[in-house]
Amino acid sequence: MHTRNKSRISKVADGIAPSMIRKLFNMAKSIDDVVDFTLGDPDVQPHENIKKAACDAIMSGKTRYSQNAGLLELRETISRRVKEKDSLYYSPLTEIAVTVGAMEGLYLTLLSLIDDGDEVIIPAPYYVNYKQMVEMCGGIPIIVNPSDKETLLVNGEDISRAITERTKAILLNSPANPSGRILTDETINTIAKLAIEHDLTVISDEVYRKLIYDSKPYLSIASLLGMKDYVVVINSLSKEFCMTGYRLGYILGPEDIVAAVVKLQENVAACAPLPSQYAAIEALGSRIDYSEQMIDTFTKRRDVLFDELKQAEGIRMIKPEATFYAMIDISGMGYDSSVSFAYDLLEKARVAVVPGISYGDICKDFIRIAFTLEESKIIEGARRIAMFTKTAK
Ligand SMILES: Cc1ncc(COP(=O)(O)O)c(C=O)c1O
User: Fold this and answer.
1) Domain residues for 351?
2) Is the distance from the beta carbon of residue 205 to the nearest atom of ligand 1 less than 6 Å?
3) 8 Å CB contact between 136 and 157
């Protein structure tokens, strides 16, 4: 038999490290009675009308391909909603593309922009897939740590220092996974100026912008004067409407980038799933605000988690301003890494969390909890953590 003498796996695929989130999630699945805080996949169901729209589409045979950019009716719905809610106009014909979740929107945008060796600035802590996606496109991720470590939030100066001749884009995520923080208006304004000065594209991942607590205001970089041509907004129905498995996202951006994304879409997924596109028309186009109750649900969960974890010795939860993630500072626990803490916690207390190191060195003394479970499970998980910290310290 012929034997191969070298790996057939490409350098790109070989270079991608499996994410720690999935690793912990898979380990948690193999243990009975685990409280699983790993995935940002809410247990809340989308509204009945949204589900019905998807089912109706299937039953009436609307299950074929759509245009690569997505159904025009959906793009028109997105355009109307963005105008109504954010006072920004994007043409449904040339400035909007529907994607397979925000993830495909991000990937195709990066693929449209990056040539080999181009640098993409990614503020830390960062959504794990950003780094890998930039690498998949042949780019170089430049991870920027906040100078003020306490806040887990970069400022304009931090970004400015990272810009080089090779910088092509800045990838922003505000509100951010995993920190739950929102970039300040001052930082947003400075980044906008830097983008214009250095001719950089800002990719603004705004999937958590409807999940902001305590009515805090939100400034999208796309809304600043003169910025529309420099910004690609990435959005999705996954978090806002709890539609993760529908795999429905969209991008808003300048014509040339959207055209490139649509061209690439033809060769990657052809289009987003059609029943999900009909569900999205219902979710985004209805007079009913389907995402309104979400913030109440998650505010309660955040507060319950915070109150419960106050009882735990040696750890400190940073109350998130947005998202359904909480970062917990474990530096007082005396562990050499967040990975060993997470393994120990899973083994001894049957609670699965993500080690902070997955989001960059800056989070090496943190773990991330996704409070995407019902309240009783959050309380149970928090109590197990408190018990664990008492004995492990
Ligand atoms: C910051 C961020 N962007 C994008 C995504 C992916 O969203 P989607 O399900 O729409 O692909 C996630 C999912 O956790 C996320 O946290």
Assistant:
1) 11-46+291-392
2) yes
3) no
3-state SS, residue 60: coil
For a mutational test of ligand 1's pocket, the pick from 38, 127, 181, 368, i.e. the residue with the most ligand atoms closer than 8 A to its C-beta, is 127
β-pair type (249-252, 316-318): unpaired
Do 31 and 76 fall within a single domain?
Answer: no
For residues 135 and 174, state if they share a domain: yes
Q: Are residues 245 and 327 in the same domain?
A: no
Q: Does residue 5 lie in a domain region?
A: no
Ligand 1 atom with minimal separation from the 248 CA:
10
Distance 207 CA to ligand 1 centre (A): 7
- CA–centroid distance, 7 to ligand 1, in Å, is 32
Residue 2 domain-assigned? no
The 10s digit of each residue's pLDDT in 165-212 is 999 999 999 999 999 999 999 999 999 999 999 999 999 999 999 999
Is the N-terminal amide bond of 175 cis, ω within 30° of 0? yes
- Tell me the pLDDT tens digit for each residue of 28-65: 888 889 999 998 888 889 999 999 999 999 999 999 99
Using one digit for the tens of pLDDT, what is the confidence trace for 56-103?
999 999 999 999 999 999 999 999 999 999 999 999 999 999 999 999
Beta bridge partners of 316: 329
DSSP-derived 3-state class of residue 338? helix
Rounded Cα gap, residues 241 and 236, in angstroms:
9
- Assess whether the C-beta atom of 241 lies below 6 angstroms from ligand 1: no
**133 CB less than 6 Å from ligand 1?**
no
**Is the distance from the beta carbon of residue 236 to the nearest atom of ligand 1 less than 6 Å?**
yes
CATH of the domain at 75: 3.40.640.10
Q: Would the pTM count as exceeding 0.90?
A: yes
Atom 14, ligand 1: residue with shortest CA distance: 40
Say how many Å lie between the CA of residue 102 and the centre of ligand 1: 6
Q: Which atom of ligand 1 is nearest to 103's Cα?
A: 11
CA distance 203 to 307: 36
What does the alpha-carbon distance between residue 71 and residue 127 come to, in Å, rounded to a whole number? 29
| CATH of residue 362 | 3.90.1150.10
